[in-house]
Amino acid sequence: MGEALREVFWNVPVSLQAVFYSAAFAVIVIFFVGLWVKVSIWLKGEDEEESPLKGAGVFNFFILSFSKFFALECLLARRVYRRSPLRALMLAGIVWSFIILFVGTLLSSIDHYLFSFLRGNVYFVYSFILDIAGVVLMVGVIVALIRKYIIKPERMVVSLQDGIILSLLLLITVTGFLVEGARLAILQPLNMDWSPIGGLVASALGGIATTTSLKSAYLLMWASHASFSLIFIAYIPYSKFFHIFAAQITTYAASKRAEIRPI
Amino acid sequence: MGKEALEKEKLKHLLDNISKEQLIELEACVTCSECLNWCPIQDVTKDPSISTPSKIKMFKKFVDNAYGLRAKIFGPKPIDEESLAKFIDALYTCTGCGGCGPVCEVGIHTQRLWWTLRRKMVDLGVTPPGGIPNLVKFVKETRNIYNQPQEERFRIWLPEDIKIAEKAEVGYFEGCGLSYNAAPMVEGALRIFKASGTEFTMLDPEEEWCCGFPPAVTGQWEILQELVDHNIEKIEERGISKLIVSCPCCLQQLRAVWPKVYGGKLPFKVEHVIQFAWEKVDNGELEFSKSIDDVVTFHDPCQLSRGLKGPAVIETVRKFIKSLPGVEFVEMERHGETTRCCGAGGGIRLYKPELAMEMGKLLIQDAKNAGAKTLLMCCPACYAVYVHRRIAPPYGEEWKKYEAGIRFNDVLQYAMKLL
After folding, report:
1. Is the CB of residue B88 less than 8 Å from the CB of residue B129?
2. A80 in contact with B at a CB cutoff of 8 Å?
3. Distance (Å, rounded) from C-alpha B318 to C-alpha A240?
4. Fewer CB within 10 A of the terminal residue: chain B, N end or C end?
């Protein structure tokens, strides 16, 4: 029995890997084209004398968008908390888990392409944190879906984009757990305690399918997970999910507003 | 696609005069819909299609038509009549109260955004709906928004014992709303000047022109330069170094818009009349000799609590009211930056007066729920709605019959009786 680790592209044929890389490249191009279109519109705006964004350019937008992800307004959904603690919890859950899963994916890439460090105990902790983040994201998205489509408050604007974005996020998390569960069910590692959700899914899948059929299903699940993730990334600058960047800037600007605003 | 309402040539100017911050704000809205819970229009229409997120979404679509990816590849796509009509209806079915701003979870300055988008539409040649264009027509003809004779601004009812100096350091700017719709508010202010021994001056009725707030809030900026230049010239001629203003809309206009139109800092300070009155009470120059047994609440006007950064003024108003002998002050649940709009602003009375009336009823209920016997206010628009029950016909008649079951008054008119 070898050291615990996760092999990237496990059970994925080289041909499918090539398709994935091609699609990922296309998605990156689509993403940056969308980003360029949005930012080029912003740059057409006038500079206001008393605006905290006076003179801001692409670099400032980039710094603000990313640094303010880690401001309390975003991480603790502070502005939302004042109005609805429950919704703030939902939002903070989605934000935290989204950041953790994003960082987790980056670490996995570093581990795969640069140097390997996700092994043994480090891997166990990594696996556990990502498992929990996945559950939190899934619960947050389900709560958002229930609020938008089942509770449906009278004073609520619901658009098609809400459904697309939330469904994509749900599909990404669900297929992510299915991929993990299928892999664990096939490989049967000795210690699955650090992948509590993946372990549960593995037990369920192991009880209803053979290893051979699981291997085929794994590929389908992996391809679905990869597709949903890539579609989601490509969709960000063309949808209202772009607020993850824009809202960081407006929240910052709101906090810096001068006493009297020009109109 | 329907008939073109904004053709490609006009779309080239779609982003003129819109700031970077506002363009980012359009992308920041996540349609969380929190703002709908605080919107007075939603209170009475329950129609999310004219709400803040919907307006933002509609304008974003216009921007996409002009500058989006498709426009970059195939050229701008004109905006059709139906889309424009829906947007204009939503944009003007709004009191401009800004109630959606402080509760915005991503910090969008909505009140300013509506001003900008209304101005944008007018600049693109779109006529505001209903009777709103009359505001500019009347101001051009009679220099006030009510199309009333200029000399009636105050000369015909000014009490004889009130002396107005030819020139003085302190000046008082009435505004159209007070002059023609809430004259007792002016008398309250002037009596406070007199009682505190303040020498003050005013522009002659023919000299004082509309401050430009109603045209500006409805997007009709073309007349502003003339109004601002004229008023500033006349104020300077009177040697005024401190201009006292009662109307919160005038105050907003003078502090935020005039410097922009004038092209720099104004040559005089601008202060709200209750700040002035409180200073006089605080330093002992103004004393009240009578007492009253009453429970009062105060309605924060939108332009004091949200248009300007409010607490400095609205906290002072509370200190002043609490200093009135015998008065018990109670707070309404919605006050300060989340104050409820009375329903009179933003040109709504000239477009959908029936909504103004329904919004007005909700504020009365708030005051009753707080246990108040008197609802105090300091905005001539609110005063016109509640004291004079002035809403455009035919709703005005219905509104006049509505039994409010509570007294209404202006803060200084109320205070004046205790001098």
Report:
1. yes
2. yes
3. 42
4. N
**Residue ranges in chain B modelled with pLDDT below 70:** 1-2, 308-311, 392-393
Give ipTM to 2 decimals.
0.91
Summarize pLDDT for A194-246 with one digit per residue, the tens.
899 999 999 999 888 888 899 999 999 999 999 999 999 999 999 999 999 99
Q: Is residue B376 within 8 Å of residue B415, measured between CB atoms?
A: no
B24 contact A CB<8A: yes
The span from the CA of A172 to the CA of A194, in Å, is 21
pLDDT digits (tens, 9 = 90+) for B352-378: 988 988 899 999 999 999 999 999 999
For the structural domain made of B294-416, what CATH number should be given? 3.40.50
- In whole angstroms, how far apart are CA B151 and each of B19, B109, B142? 40, 39, 10
* Structure-block tokens of residue A33: 């084209």
Phi, psi of B296 (to 5 degrees): -120, 155
Partner-chain contact B21 A153, CB within 8 Å: no
In chain B, what are the domain boundaries?
8-123, 140-282, 294-416
- Which residues, other chains included, contact A1 with Cβ-Cβ below 8 Å and sequence gap of 6+? A190
pLDDT at B393: 66
Question: How far A154 CA sits from the closest chain B CA (Å)?
Answer: 8
pLDDT averaged over every residue in chain A: 90
Q: Are B296 and B321 in contact (CB under 8 A)?
A: yes
A120: left (phi over 0), alpha (psi -120 to 50) or beta: left
Cα–Cα distance between B175 and B173 in angstroms, integer? Answer: 6
Residue B210 structure tokens: 């509309």
Question: For the domain with range B8-123, which CATH number is right: 1.10.238, 1.10.1060, 1.10.3710, 1.10.10?
Answer: 1.10.1060
Neighboring chain B residues of A253 at a CB cutoff of 8 Å: 21, 24, 107
- Distance (Å, whole) CA B320 – CA B310: 15
Q: What is the CATH number of domain B140-282?
A: 1.20.1050
Burial bucket for residue A150 (CB in 10 Å: 0-12, 13-18, 19+): exposed
Pairing of strands B79-80, B4-6: antiparallel
Strand ranges across the sheet with B170-173: B200-202, B170-173, B242-245, B269-272
